[in-house]
Amino acid sequence: MIGRISSALMVFLISSAFVAANAADANPGDPGWRRTAGHYNVTFDERGRSTIVFDFEIQAVDDRGAEAISQQAFAYNNDLSELSSSDLATLKADGRLIAVDERAIRDQPAAADSSSFSEERRRIISYSHVAAGDKIRGRLIYKSKTADFAGEFADDGGAFAERHDRADAGMAMADVLKRLPE
User: Fold this and answer.
1) Backbone angles phi, psi at 15, to 5 degrees
2) For residue 38, is it within any domain?
3) Residue-wise pLDDT tens digits, 2-42
4) Are 66 and 29 in contact (CB under 8 A)?
5) CA 178 to chain centre
6) For residue 31, what is the domain's CATH number?
7) What is the DSSP secondary-structure string of 126-161?
8) Are β-strands 120-126 and 135-144 bridged in parallel, bridged antiparallel, or unpaired?
9) What's the pLDDT tens digit per position in 91-113?
10) Is there a domain that residue 137 lies in?
């Protein structure tokens, strides 16, 4: 169970490292780009299925970095999760925003071998007109198809809400007691 969550987070880390590895080949000390924002949010529904939202922003410091970040690849397993994306754009240094055209997004098998039965896939996003000083940004949403923690988020008949209400009432009473004169 935890392995699925760990593997999903590892996919994010590996895909982010993929860009770093490609850029670092040219100059091991400076890849030519900087991550300016990266935020993960993981939630679970009542059936224990996870949704991972990854917001990112990467700035090209020089021409080499612009080339490195202009194409991003994100891996996922189609049997285990769905991958969608939104807010994909190039933010030019002068403030203009160039949205990624849907035709610039490819979803393909991770392995070139067509005899492979693996459902490992790669979503490749090509950002247009990336130059030094520009940023790319986007949001990826991984939704698991199966429960990561089966039965752990099941409906408890309202017991959780009742405990939450009691906790709120207890906190309110504690506030009142603090204000009473001694």
Assistant:
1) -65, -35
2) yes
3) 555 545 444 444 455 444 444 444 456 789 999 999 999 99
4) no
5) 44
6) 2.60.40.3140
7) E-SS--TT-EEEEEEEEEESS-SSTTTT---TTHHH
8) unpaired
9) 999 999 999 999 999 998 887 66
10) yes
